[in-house]
């Protein structure tokens, strides 16, 4: 795939087209579609993979809600933990789910999942994103960021129960092989 780069000179008014071969291979699909450095927040035109960690917009949204609303009580997360377990199990590409909560306000809820070996990272990302948006988030407000690599999918999320209510942050981590220490 070749991208075209347009150069313009406002003083002269001329245009030239230069063929630019993307320099970076997408870690998800393996095609040479990215022109930025690995970790940039560029989207692959073949598979839709987005590089980098949770985006600046996501981080800014979580900081804003954390400054305006109380965090959920870590001792009162059993209901949403049960929901995470139930709805992630319903994703066809997921074969194991373990949900844990912690007192860390930055990440009170973590779901660690194991994907079916035949499932593509893109498919897993679509399924867990759909589960988040349809079944797990609160109706009032949410934000999320998905990171896809060739060996993992991460969905970082935050949701608020109502205008004056608490918020919860969560992360769903999906891998294709079981960690050695579990």
Sum this structure up briefly.
The chain folds into two domains: 1-52, no CATH class; 56-175, 2-Layer Sandwich (Beta Polymerase, domain 2), CATH 3.30.460. It has three helices and nine strands.
Description:
- It is a single chain.
- The protein has 182 residues and is α+β, with helices and mostly antiparallel strands.
- It folds into two domains: 1-52, no CATH class; 56-175, Beta Polymerase, domain 2 (2-Layer Sandwich), CATH 3.30.460.
- The protein contains three helices and nine strands.
- The strands form three sheets. A five-stranded mixed sheet has the order 5-6-9-8-7, with helices on both faces. It has a two-stranded antiparallel ribbon with strand order 1-2.
- A hairpin with a 6-residue loop joins strand 8 and strand 9.
- Helix 2 crosses helix 3.
- The termini are far apart.
Q: What is the residue-mean pLDDT, rounded to a whole number? A: 79
**Would you list the SSEs in sequence order as H and E?**
EEEEHHEEHEEE
Strand order of the largest sheet: 5-6-9-8-7
Low-confidence stretches: 1-19
Question: If helices are DSSP runs of H or I spanning 4 or more residues, what is the number of helices?
Answer: 3
Helix content: 10-25%
Q: What do we call the CATH topology of the largest domain? A: Beta Polymerase, domain 2
Number of beta strands: 9
Please report which band the strand proportion falls in: under 5%, 5-15%, 15-25%, 25-35%, 35-45% or over 45%: 25-35%
The CA-CA distance between the termini, in Å, is: 42 Å
Structural class: alpha+beta
Largest sheet: 5 strands, mixed
Shape: globular
- The CATH class designation of the largest domain is Alpha Beta
CATH architecture of the largest domain: 2-Layer Sandwich
């Amino acid at each position: 795939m070749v991208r075209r780069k347009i150069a313009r000179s406002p003083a002269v008014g001329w245009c030239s087209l230069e063929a630019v071969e993307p320099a970076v291979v997408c870690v998800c699909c393996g095609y040479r579609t990215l022109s930025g450095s690995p970790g940039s927040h560029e989207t692959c035109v073949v598979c839709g993979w987005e590089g980098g960690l949770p985006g600046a917009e996501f981080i800014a949204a979580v900081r804003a809600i954390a400054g305006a609303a109380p965090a959920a009580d870590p001792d009162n997360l059993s209901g949403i933990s049960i929901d995470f377990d139930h709805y992630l199990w319903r994703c066809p590409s997921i074969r194991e789910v373990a949900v844990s909560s912690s007192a860390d306000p930055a990440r009170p809820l973590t779901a660690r999942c194991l994907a079916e070996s035949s499932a593509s990272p893109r498919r897993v990302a679509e399924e867990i994103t759909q589960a988040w948006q349809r079944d797990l988030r609160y109706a009032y407000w949410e934000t999320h960021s998905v990171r896809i690599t060739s060996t993992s999918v991460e969905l970082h999320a935050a949701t608020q129960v109502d205008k004056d209510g608490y918020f919860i942050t969560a992360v769903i981590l999906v891998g294709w092989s079981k960690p050695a220490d579990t």
